Amino acid sequence: MPRDFVTACVSICWSLALSLICGGAVAGATRDSGYYGESLAQYTTAWIDDKRLLFISSGRDSVTAKRALYIWNLEVDAITKYAELGQSAGMCFAEGFIRYWYARDVSIIERAGRFGEEKEQVFNAGDWPAKKGLRLNRLTCRYFRDGDLPNTETIVFRPLREGDGYVGNGVAPKSNETFFLPNESAQAVGLKSPTRAVELAYSVYGRAYVLREAPAIIVRSKETSVRFWVFRPPNDLHSVSIPPGPWLGGSIAAVEPAAGGIAFTSHASGKPDKDGRPTTGAGGLYLLINREAKRLIPGYPFGMSVSPNGCEVAVNIVPRAAAGLPSTIRIAHLCIGQSK
Hints:
- Helix content is 4%, strand content 46%.
- It is mainly β.
- It has a single domain (3-333), classed as Methylamine Dehydrogenase, Chain H, CATH 2.130.10.
- The strands form 7 sheets. Strands 1-26-25-24 form a 4-stranded antiparallel beta sheet, with no helix packed on it. A 4-stranded antiparallel beta sheet has the order 2-3-4-5, with no helix packed on it.
- A hairpin with a 3-residue loop joins strand 18 and strand 19.
- The longest helix is centred in the N-terminal third of the chain and has 13 residues, at 3-15.
- It is globular.
- The protein starts with a helix and ends in a 7-residue tail after the last strand.
C-alpha cells in the first residue's frame, strides 16, 4: 500500500475523529514468536522498519536465561540474535538511532549510535546517567538535562523530536493546562485539551504525537470513555475517545494510531477462576474501528509498538492476568495481504 495513500487516509480519519474506517485493513491474523518477553517492562519492542521488529527476550527455552536483543524478520519469518545483554535490560529506538543497556554487577553497560554502529560505554556505581542529571528522551533516544529546557515559573517543558519544539504542563495556577512551544524564542501556546495531558508518545505511522491523560495506571470505569489527543505541530490537534466497554475495566496502557483505526492495550482482568487465579477477562490488544473495539490478542499486555506502515502491531503479552506467568512477543497483522 503506498505510503501517501496511508497518510492521506489517516488524516481523513483524524479530521472526522476517526469515525470512518481507513481502507485496506482487516483485523485478523496473529503470530506468536515463541520467544519470552520481559514481564513488567513496557519498552522492549521497537520496529526498525515495516518488516523487522526488535525485541528483548530470554529466548525460547527459559524465562531466566540471559537476555539478548533479537530481530524478527517477518518477510522470511526468521528470528536472529542481534546483541547479548544481561539483567535489567532496556532499549530505545527512534529514526534509526538505538540505545540499549543492561546491568552487570553494579555497573550499567550501554551501547548507543546509529543502528549497526553502536558504541559501548560503561557506567559504574555513582556514575549512572540519572545521577549526572541526564534524562532519556524516548522520542529521540538521546539524553537531555532539565536545566537546558526553556522552563518558566508557570510551565515545565519536555523536548519533542529534533526541530519540533517542546510540550509542557502548567504549574499552579495553570496546573491543568498543556502548552506547546515551537522554539525557545517563541511564545508558548495553550493546547485546547480539556484536561492535563502529560503522557507523550510519537506515532511514526501517523507522523504525529499522542498526548494522554495521566496517570495511565488508574483503573477506569467501564461506563466512561477515555480520551487522548493526536497532535501535529504547530496547531493540528484532534481529540479521540475510546468508548465505554469491558476493556475499560482496567487501565489503558498504550494508545497509537494504526492502519484501520487506533490500536490500544487494556489491563482489564476477569473474575478469579475456581482456584482463585485471575483470568484474562477483557484485557489484551485491541483495534478501535469506527468507535467499535475489536480484541485482536487476549491477555495482560506490558508494551505495544506499531510498525511504520501501521500494518503490524507488536505486543509483549501474558496469556492471562496472573503474577509470575511469562509473557511472549506476538504480532497482529492489520493489512490485507500482510499475514502469512
